[in-house]
């Protein structure tokens, strides 16, 4: 790919990373003991698409909330950056199946402007559909059918209880399949204890692999890090705070810390124990985004006149859903069992048997695809 592709991605990367940690902090405030999982790229991609139609203070709020500084990156560069990033992530050479998208469902009496339709499709590959919101049941079925089809049946009945005065619904979704570069062996997975907190212990299937991994021990923040690569250019960064140190690590999360970690890794042979888990989360974004300063798009003060040419449009509902399954092959599909050869030397043991943080990132574009906190691997569904 031409270098300009990567340059455009790099321009939006700092803002996207800042947005990731800002969003994580907001979610964690209301979910002290719950699992957290979201796709920052998915959310920022959808909100940046709305910027195509936002004007005046509504536009300024979106730029600020998404951590984009207009003295460093222009609106045009933001849109080109997301367009190139989606192309890059969907490239077959990347070796992951990433289904990331968003859609606008607009009341059938509203007519989107040709420029908005063109730009939303051109930059964001976005679908825009007319919907009869006065027939709320039919509208719900239309939106839910769309999401179910786009996510291969992974998400069903996302939208419920739509009101009849809705003018626009924004839906974004993310589904990822990726194979570990070096899979875990199924025969090494054992039932083991996971210490949720001082009072709660659960039994989980604990995967095991003895191998060379990039690791780093951050003594300042009292946490251990392991990077596990997928095939292609994507990796998962697992962060294991020492007991009682989760909040200390969470409070320190920002761009500089992530950069420090990624530049501090050294390859080391370890005995890695990692729980197999499946997490499915659903967020109603309105409250979270409002706390991040993005308020107008949900109110009558919204100026989204670049979408239809009329000022009365606002976002009635914004839903975000993510599904992540971590298991022996790192993917949804079954694969061959790999037999591990374990040497005689006693390697360092890193055991993820207490709450930890996971960050899935793509290295070429410097993009965070998924971020989460696994507090209890047995708790498969969370709603916020």
TrEMBL record:
Sorted UniProt keywords: Glycoprotein, Protease inhibitor, Serine protease inhibitor, Signal
Q: Which Gene3D superfamilies match?
A: Alpha-1-antitrypsin, domain 1, Antithrombin, subunit I, domain 2, Serpins superfamily
Q: Does the keyword Glycoprotein apply?
A: yes
Where do the Serpin domain residues begin and end?
21-377
Q: Which Pfam families match?
A: Serpin
InterPro entries registered for this protein in UniProt: Serpin_CS, Serpin_dom, Serpin_fam, Serpin_sf, Serpin_sf_1, Serpin_sf_2
Supply the PROSITE patterns for this chain.
SERPIN (PS00284)
Q: Which SUPFAM superfamilies match?
A: Serpins
Q: Name one GO molecular function term.
A: serine-type endopeptidase inhibitor activity
Q: Which cellular component terms (GO) are annotated to the entry? A: extracellular space
Indicate whether Glycoprotein appears among the record's keywords: yes
Task: Give the family per the record.
Answer: Belongs to the serpin family.
Protein known as: Serpin domain-containing protein
User: What organism, scientifically named, is this protein from?
Assistant: Anolis carolinensis (Green anole)
């Amino acid at each position: 790919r031409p270098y300009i592709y990567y340059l455009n991605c790099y321009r939006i990367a700092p803002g996207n990373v800042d947005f990731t940690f800002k969003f994580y902090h907001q979610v964690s405030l209301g979910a002290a003991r719950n699992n957290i999982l979201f796709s920052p790229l998915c959310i920022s991609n959808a909100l940046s698409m709305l910027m195509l139609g936002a004007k005046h203070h509504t536009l300024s709020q979106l730029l600020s909330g998404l951590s984009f500084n207009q003295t460093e990156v222009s609106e045009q560069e933001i849109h080109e950056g997301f367009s190139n990033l989606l192309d890059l992530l969907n490239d077959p050479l990347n070796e992951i199946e990433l289904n990331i998208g968003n859609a606008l469902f607009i009341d059938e009496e509203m007519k989107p402007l040709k420029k908005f339709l063109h730009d939303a499709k051109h930059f964001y590959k976005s679908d825009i559909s007319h919907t009869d919101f006065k027939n709320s049941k039919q509208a719900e079925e239309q939106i839910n059918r769309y999401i179910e089809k786009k996510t291969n049946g992974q998400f069903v009945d996302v939208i419920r209880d739509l009101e009849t005065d809705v003018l626009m619904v924004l839906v974004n979704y993310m589904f990822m399949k990726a194979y570990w570069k070096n899979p875990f062996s199924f025969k090494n997975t054992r039932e083991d204890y996971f210490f949720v907190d001082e009072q709660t212990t659960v039994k989980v299937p604990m995967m095991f692999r003895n191998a060379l991994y990039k690791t780093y021990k951050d003594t300042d923040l009292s946490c251990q890090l392991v990077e596990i690569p997928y095939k292609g250019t994507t990796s998962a960064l697992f962060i294991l705070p020492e007991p009682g140190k989760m909040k200390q690590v969470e409070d320190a999360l920002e761009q500089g810390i992530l950069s420090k970690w990624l530049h501090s890794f050294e390859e080391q042979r370890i005995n890695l124990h990692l729980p197999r888990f499946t997490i499915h989360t659903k967020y109603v974004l309105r409250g979270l985004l409002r706390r991040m300063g993005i308020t107008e798009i949900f109110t009558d003060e919204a100026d989204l006149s670049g979408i239809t040419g009329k000022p009365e449009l606002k976002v009635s509902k914004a839903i975000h859903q993510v599904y992540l399954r971590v298991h022996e092959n790192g993917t949804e599909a079954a694969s061959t069992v790999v037999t591990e050869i374990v040497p005689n030397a006693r390697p360092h043991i890193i055991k993820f048997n207490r709450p930890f943080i996971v960050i899935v990132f793509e290295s070429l574009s410097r993009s965070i695809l998924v971020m989460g906190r696994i507090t209890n691997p047995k708790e498969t569904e969370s709603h916020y």
